[in-house]
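Structure (tokenized):
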């Protein structure tokens, strides 16, 4: 893991209000312990984002979500204020920006991304899932922006 990533994760953990309060009240050892746990947890999320087949980051008006199979890490903030998600995207995790999407009904009716990399053989109906690349095809048709596109390049 790059030292710059660790530096960012440590700074994020140290800036949490609870950790600051622990330091202020003289409980520095507990604050350091909690910060270490936070950094290790976040490193695990970054590793999963880099290795899971359908891992992706999605950002919309309701916040930013890192989808990691059966785990989701989220905040109500945009990606610009969610450093963990920004780090995941900087390290190559696919990013779907749905803020430009205006047809929220069509977006809400899209199939979900398969959590474990498997795909339903007949993707139709409620609760069915599709691959990340198929999902990207669908949201791109609704004007979403894509970074770190995992789809194979098409030569014209």
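Design, position by position:
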């Amino acid at each position: 893991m790059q030292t710059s990533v660790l530096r960012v994760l440590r700074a994020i953990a140290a800036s949490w209000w609870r950790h600051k309060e622990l330091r202020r009240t003289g409980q520095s050892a507990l604050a350091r312990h909690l910060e270490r746990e936070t950094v290790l947890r976040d490193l695990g999320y970054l590793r999963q984002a880099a290795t899971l087949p359908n891992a992706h980051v999605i950002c919309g008006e309701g916040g930013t979500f890192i989808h990691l199979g059966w785990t989701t890490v989220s905040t109500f903030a945009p990606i610009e204020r969610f450093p963990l998600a920004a780090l995941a995207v900087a390290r190559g995790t696919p990013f779907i920006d749905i803020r430009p999407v205006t047809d929220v009904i069509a977006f809400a009716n899209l199939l979900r991304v398969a959590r474990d990399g498997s795909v339903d053989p007949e993707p139709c109906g409620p609760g069915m899932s599709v691959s990340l690349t198929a999902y990207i095809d669908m949201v791109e048709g609704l004007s979403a922006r894509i970074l770190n596109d995992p789809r194979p390049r098409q030569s014209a």
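Reviewer-requested clarification: The mean pLDDT is 89. Residues 50 and 84 are 13 Å apart (CA to CA).
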